Amino acid sequence: MEFKKNRLKMENIEAEEEKFPTSQIIEEDSSAYYLPPRRSNVSIILWTLFILLLITVIGAGVYYQTEKGKKFFQGLFPQLAKSEETPKKKELADSTEKLNRIVEQPYIPRSSMDPELSACINFYRDRQVGKAMVKCEEYLNRPASDSNKSVALTILGVMYDEKGRTSLAIDKLKLAIKYDANNVHAYYNLAMAYRNSGNFGEAKLIILKAKEIAPGDSKISLLAGNILSETNDPEKAIDSYKEGISRSPNDPFLSYNLALSLYKQGKAPEAIENFQKAILAAGRGQVAELSHAHLGSIYYHRGELEAAEHHFREANP
Questions:
Q1: Of 137, 298, 317, 71, which Cα lies nearest the Cα of 308?
Q2: Residue 261 maps to which CATH number?
Q3: CA distance 182 to 2
Q4: What is the pLDDT of residues 91-106, one digit of tens each?
Q5: Are residues 148 and 199 in the same domain?
Q6: I need a labelling partner for 197 at 20 to 30 A (CA). Which of 76, 79, 123, 300 fits?
């Protein structure tokens, strides 16, 4: 009986093998396993494209570092040129404005033969503003010449302007001119007060009047040039700087501002000459550094990279 059962089992197994031959299963599995996947060709293409793109990007980056490459890309994408130049120009403009503010300090007489007026002047120069104000007010309430009272009013006007009380400063300085129509210090400081108040038209009129009174005063020529430049009168600004230089040829501030105005007018050769004069006159300091920075910028845009590098280095000692 057992033999028959075993035989039946064997027959059943053989029947199953006939339905599903083992060799066929193995053959089908092996062929399914060893057939190369179709995705492999796509992967190779994608990797090749990625590598080519990476090489292109790296090559473009290296080329952009060269002068020709930089000009090529800036021609294609003007915003690249703007992004590089604008901060530099803005920085130079900001520095120039600060320089003008440093130079354009109040202009007052150095001293006076009158000891009481001299005390008023010296208190102001020593930055003892409170004492200077009291002394000047006291001086105005005592007998004195009109010209001396004009000086005291000028110093009061300057102090009020420095405190931000521009309207009161203008009143004091106008009164100073009434006492002495030739008080050039009053005109200078009145022009400053008008400019500080935003009234550039009056500032221009007043500083030009000061130039008539003292045509050889380099401080007045400098302020006149700056105000004329700010009021879009570049040719007269250039003339004013040149007049000042004719009287004070070694004044670095006049040479620097003249160079700046010439450069804005597209007169690069003259600008270069005057920036160099400013450097020689100044020696070291802010005027020299700004002059070197502008020269570096000029030479850079002319493609004279060695000269540009030299001046940029000198601008950041």
A1: 298
A2: 1.25.40.10
A3: 145
A4: 666 666 666 656 678 9
A5: yes
A6: 123
